[in-house]
Amino acid sequence: MIQNIEPHVYRNEYVPEPPKEDSVILYYEGRKILVKLEDQEISFLTFKEAAVCYPDIYEDYTYLFSIDGQGYYLTDGIDPADFPGFELKDNQYFREARPKYRQFAAVTGWQLYRWYQSRKFCGHCGQPMVHDDKERMMRCPDCGMMEFPKICPAVIIAVTHGNKILMSKYAGREYKKYALLAGFNETGESIEETVRREVMEEVGLKVKNLRYYKSQPWSFTDTLLMGFFCELDGEDGITLDTDELAMAEWFEREQMPVEAEDLSLTNEMMMAFKHGKM
């Protein structure tokens, strides 16, 4: 999955120390990030490279995280045209970008970039927010309101029925491949209740024997995904929620139209069932 970048080591402790020459700049414009592509691998701008055009680049930054001890930072106020060989790539490109640890850095940084962009003003009193000195938190100096990074709990659900699994396609989304049922946790419900509710809402089925599989951070949507396998409880006739899904269909294990990739929890769960591991 996208977060499995071993042997590289990701550290997300908030340590806002000044950047070094080899520290990495993650520069975003909306859905796009500035990268250089060489021999089918991506790299990012460093502070040393940026300082050639912007000598004061070391004075305005936001610390994000480190990988293998190298710091990654947000900056703004630069012009991508000043850096030949670099280009802005849409975030969907990072579903396949390599090397994997830089793919992970780009997507994780984009989640934090969007959070910082949306937390410039206090939601309680409207005053400008400031960075906290000790935590990754935006604080209102006027009323004391504190804002931490947004993480939304959600479930990925593999509904099985003997040798069959329920696969679906989303309605109205860029992603057109087969997926499993999924949905966000709502206020006041447990994760297990989320599984049962989402299956009933999306395909009109009851499920039983819920088994937790594993979790995944999914920065494309600010989400912490939790994967569950469960069994059909009752009739297998599907009542499709066409607002959420373009289709949903039962597939025999041997006929599942899916191939392995190393990005998503959804794919790992489908492949686990396809190969008889679940």
In short:
With 278 residues, the chain is an alpha+beta fold. The chain has helices at 47-51, 100-117, 191-203, 265-274; strands at residues 10-11, 24-26, 28-29, 32-38, 41-43, 45-46, 62-67, 70-74, 86-90, 130-131, 138-139, 146-147, 152-161, 164-170, 181-184, 207-218, 223-232, 245-252.
Key traits:
single chain; 278 residues; alpha+beta; six-stranded mixed β-sheet; five-stranded mixed β-sheet; 4 helices; 18 strands; globular
Topology overview:
Blueprint: E1 10-11, E2 24-26, E3 28-29, E4 32-38, E5 41-43, E6 45-46, H1 47-51, E7 62-67, E8 70-74, E9 86-90, H2 100-117, E10 130-131, E11 138-139, E12 146-147, E13 152-161, E14 164-170, E15 181-184, H3 191-203, E16 207-218, E17 223-232, E18 245-252, H4 265-274
Parallel strand pairs: 2-8, 13-17
Antiparallel strand pairs: 1-7, 2-6, 3-4, 4-5, 4-9, 7-8, 10-11, 11-12, 13-14, 13-15, 14-18, 16-17
